[in-house]
Amino acid sequence: MQHNLATREDDISWKTAVGGEDQEILAGLMADPMYLSSKFFYDEVGSKLFEEITRLDEYYVSRTEKSILEANAGEIMSGADHASVVELGSGDCSKISILLSALGQETLKTVTYVPFDVSMSAIEDSGCRLREKFGSVEISAVVADFMDHIHLVSQHEKRVFCFFGSTIGNQDRGHAVRFLENLGKLMRSGERLLLGLDMVKDRNILEKAYNDTEGITARFNKNILEVTNHTIGTDFDTEEFEHRAFFHEEKQRIEMHLVARKDVTITSPFFDGTLGIQKGDSIHTENSHKFTTDHIDEMASLSGLSVRNAYADNNDWFTLVDYVK
Ligand code: AVJ
After folding, report:
1. In the chain, which end has fewer C-beta atoms inside a 10 angstrom radius, N or C?
2. What is the distance between the terminal CA atoms of the chain, rounded to a whole angstrom?
3. Residue 73 has what pLDDT?
4. Element (H, E) at 170
């Protein structure tokens, strides 16, 4: 499913490839153990909750990455005239704004911003805000899952791929490497990838970031059941599930789960019969892998890219890697 939407009055050009979410959600609930892909967190409510998370004291991730971008934007964006800045998982536009702010007015006019996200409404919001700040920048959006549809950016030249937020950590190591391999193959010589990576650190710091005292992360986690209800007509009651997040030392990742507080029976027009969930059963909703400097080099060699530069904060909690083909 792929088509170009007519140019809208806000002057963003669009490409879309969406569909199949219902089958994906269904497959996860039928699996043992049950899982739901973390990409389903980000409906309108979930995206708002995630923005709240990024402002929490405990959630150092976004703040730290932004401080790295701010400190190094000039160097990162040198030579970015006539570039297409492709942002994978564009969510909100705050990080790309930091980079574009480092460009002069004349250079800005030569740059195209290509937000690539499953959520058209998220792109519209961030596109509007970006237009307010940088009137002249051209925007060419792609609405699709970039894990499957990265080739949709083939018409653009001199691309700077931006994959911020350590979102690549949501993938299993194998998937992440395969994705980077594909991206590396599609990149032309001289093109770059700015990859934001949350580093392995003291487990208390990590676990606090995913178990905030205000319970925003718990609401964010439970919202995936609302998304499931809307998508396949299930009747999950979020009250019947508990948020659980912990650091898995061996796998070097935060895992998030929803654990049933009691036996529940779920119905859906997509099921034959019902789905029984027992007290203590969990639905695995997210992996957030953390990285080491070894991973940074390994990802380069496996994807055919070179590390041009790596920027970190003073605590080495987060790294922004500048890979080049
Ligand atoms: C946006 C996927 C990087 O894994 O830290 C925040 C999402 N989940 N709190 C992360 C998230 C729980 C976030 N990523």
Report:
1. N
2. 30
3. 98
4. none
How close is the Cα of 61 to the center of ligand 1, in Å? 8
d(CA 183, CA 194): 12
Distances from the Cα of 32 to the Cα of 94, 148, 201, angstroms: 39, 24, 31
How open is the CA angle 291-299-175, to the nearest 5 degrees? 85
3-state SS assignment for residue 316: coil
25: tokens are 């959600």
Whether residue 14 contacts residue 5, with contact meaning beta carbons closer than 8 Å, is answered with: yes
Closest CA to 117 of 53, 66, 176, 44: 44
Would the CB of 167 count as within 6 Å of ligand 1? yes
Tokens of 65: 């990455």
CB count, 10 Å around CB of 42? 22
Residue 8 has pLDDT above 60, yes or no: no
CB 170 near ligand 1, within 6 Å: yes
**Ligand 1, pocket-test mutation among 118, 253, 287, 288, most atoms within 8 A of CB:** 288
Helix (H) or strand (E) holding 293: helix 293-303
**pLDDT value of position 1:** 31
Domains detected in the chain: 2-18+57-202+291-324 (3.40.50.150)
The CB of 223 under 6 Å from ligand 1? The reply is no
What tokens were used for 200? 């392995």
Q: For 137, phi and psi rounded to 5 degrees? A: -70, 135
Give the model confidence (pLDDT) of 100-121 as tens digits.
999 999 999 999 999 998 878 7
Determine if ligand 1 sits within 6 Å of the CB of residue 193. Answer: no
Predicted confidence (pLDDT) per residue in 204-225, tens digit: 999 999 999 999 999 999 999 9
Q: Is 90 exceeded by the pLDDT of residue 190?
A: yes
The answer, as to whether pTM is greater than 0.90, is yes
